[in-house]
Design a protein that fits this description.
Layout: E1 3-6, E2 12-16, E3 19-24, E4 27-33, E5 39-43, E6 48-49, H1 51-59, E7 64-67, E8 74-78, H2 86-96, H3 99-124, H4 129-143, H5 149-175, H6 188-211, H7 229-235, H8 239-253, E9 261-262, E10 272-273, H9 275-290, E11 292-294, E12 300-302, H10 303-319
Parallel strand pairs: 1-5, 2-6, 5-7
Antiparallel strand pairs: 2-3, 3-4, 7-8, 9-10, 11-12
Helix pairs in contact: 3-4, 3-5, 3-8, 4-5, 6-7, 6-8, 6-9, 6-10, 8-9
């Protein structure tokens, strides 16, 4: 196990010898060796963790992430702190305030995202895919000459509109998908995408923090209080590779039914996965993140490590050890 997700409300998570013990009402739900865990996600205010375990995890460099019960909102990530990365973070501040440097990083990230969206559509077998692919190609061509980050955002938006337009044609009849929407998700497909992207953000945040970069100093996403802009930047190229492919696979295999989605009484316009549905998606997500993917060098490595390698590549560019950032597109 790489990531331990705890979503059972009323659960208590504590340390016993070299193991993580999860209990509820005096009954043991799960026991996991500490050396099998890379990060922990506590979902909901009803999940409790002992101080002894928290200190042990932080001491081992294992981040602990706090989200709401549905996993749709990230509250905080607890780590040992960034103090030993002062020089890197100072360089990062200088880089992100350089318009030319920021433009190049944002352009590289979006270039990879568009390529990965195109690759997914090429295997989808949808009648609307060829037209959407042509529009993505046009966005990619325009991106090469984008004069500023606002223009980069425009080309990314054009690509996303074409991409999810093909999704809409394929999925609106059976699943009510009318396009990407997330505040709140109005249909089952958007509910799965939003939850999956939150899981992916946990992994990208962990990779960025492990590398020593400041996750709140990005380029493509606007820097705002509480927004992990760099983590959101790096997540872009992995959205089609991880979450989008996963959601389509679940739909095609019929592994999630409409019965596993619910509308909260306090928000009837929102659709969310129920606990059983979240468990299914988490299980499949972990399988994807641990499955091998091919690097440009030809090496096979777990997808989760590919995320870390991309964060490390940004750090090298920040330090001046690498001329430019190359977004990840599987070889």
């Amino acid at each position: 196990m790489a990531t331990l997700y705890v979503q059972e409300q009323g659960a208590n998570v504590r340390k016993r010898d070299e193991q993580v013990l999860i209990t509820k009402d005096g009954k043991t739900l799960e026991t996991i060796p500490l050396n099998k865990i890379d990060q922990v996600v506590l979902m909901g205010r009803g999940v409790q963790m002992s101080t002894a375990l928290l200190v042990e995890l932080i001491g081992r460099g294992i981040p602990v992430m706090l989200t709401n019960q549905r996993g749709s909102k990230h509250y905080a990530t607890l780590t040992a702190g960034p103090s030993r990365f002062g020089a890197l973070r100072l360089a990062q501040i200088q880089r992100v305030t350089d318009p030319a440097w920021s433009l190049e990083l944002a352009r590289a990230i979006v270039r990879a995202k568009l390529a990965n969206q195109r690759a997914l559509l090429a295997t989808a077998g949808w009648p609307a895919a060829p037209a959407a692919t042509a529009q993505i190609d046009a966005a990619a061509a325009g991106l090469a000459g984008a004069p500023d980050i606002e223009a980069v955002r425009g080309y990314e938006g054009a690509g996303a509109a074409a991409y999810f337009g093909a999704w809409r044609v394929a999925l609106q009849r059976d699943w009510g998908f009318q396009g990407r929407a997330f505040y709140p998700p109005p249909d089952p497909v958007n509910a799965m995408l939003s939850f999956g992207y939150t899981l992916l953000l946990h992994d990208v945040l962990a990779a960025v923090q492990f590398t020593g970069l400041d996750p709140y100093l990005g380029t493509f996403h606007v820097i705002e209080a509480g927004r992990p802009s760099l983590a959101l930047d790096l997540m872009e190229e992995f959205r089609p590779l991880v979450v989008d492919r996963l959601v389509l696979a679940l739909l095609r295999a019929g592994q999630l039914s409409r019965a596993q989605f619910e509308r909260p009484p306090q928000r009837p316009d929102a659709v969310h996965l129920d606990a059983a549905g979240r468990a299914v998606l988490v299980d499949r997500y972990e399988a994807v993140m641990q499955a091998p993917t091919r690097l440009p060098s030809g090496e096979q490595t777990p997808m989760r490590r590919a995320v870390l390698l991309q964060a490390q590549a940004v750090a090298r560019v920040v330090r001046g050890e690498q001329a430019q950032y190359l977004g990840y597109t599987p070889a």
